[in-house]
Amino acid sequence: MLLPRLIAGFFAVALAASACGESPAPSDEAGVDAAAAGVNGEEPWLLPRSLLFSDPPQIRARLSPDGSKLAWLASKGGVMSIKMGPVEKLSHAEVLISEMGRSVDYFEWARDNVHLIYALEPDGSGPPALYSADSYTGASVELAPSGAKSLSYIVAASWDHPDQV
């Protein structure tokens, strides 16, 4: 799940650079990058590593199938957690899934508009486990355990059978 985090980081860098009003440094005729050499004797402007490699504050928003709720991944205590709230009042959003030291890698709404299916990375190395959480109560059920020889992910969900994945 590193690639989506890197892509999100690069977009964050582009947004940060545009918000700062920074434009790309000009090059001289010899093709030497002026930023690498410093402009007018000044130190080059460098991006902090945390901007490139840390989790973004909020990513991967998902609208519930009926359009009434919005859920997204939010950074809380150094791990990615699922935050959810009603579309009309996002200021009332609350953290639905948060486990100390374990980040949510991926999540999707089930077709029943009630459950969120998410992948939670294990304590150590290995593939994530798959869980289902009730969006009203926050109660979670393990659907597929993690293990060195198992890999769980969502293949398909049917509108005809919203209670099955």
List keywords for this structure.
single chain; 165 residues; alpha+beta; 4-stranded antiparallel β-sheet; 8 strands; 16% helix
Question: Could you describe the 3D structure shown?
Answer:
Strands 1-2-3-4 form a four-stranded antiparallel β-sheet, with no helix packed on it. The chain has three helices and eight strands, in the order αααββββββββ. The longest helix is centred in the first third of the chain and has 18 residues, at 2-19. It has 165 residues and is an alpha+beta fold.
Strands, helices and their partners?
Elements (H helix, E strand, L loop, with lengths): L1 H18 L14 H4 L11 H5 L4 E6 L5 E8 L2 E8 L7 E4 L6 E6 L5 E6 L8 E6 L5 E5 L21
Antiparallel strand pairs: 1-2, 2-3, 3-4, 5-6, 6-7, 7-8
Rounded average pLDDT:
73
**Assembly state:** single chain
Q: Which strands sit side by side, in order, in the main sheet?
A: 1-2-3-4
Radius of gyration (CA) equals: 21 Å
Q: In percent, how much strand structure appears in the residues?
A: 25-35%
List SSEs in N-to-C order.
Answer: HHHEEEEEEEE
Name the shape in a single word: globular
- Counting DSSP E segments of at least 2 residues, the number of strands comes to 8
Main sheet properties: 4 strands, antiparallel
Indicate the percent of residues in helices: 10-25%
Secondary structural class: alpha+beta
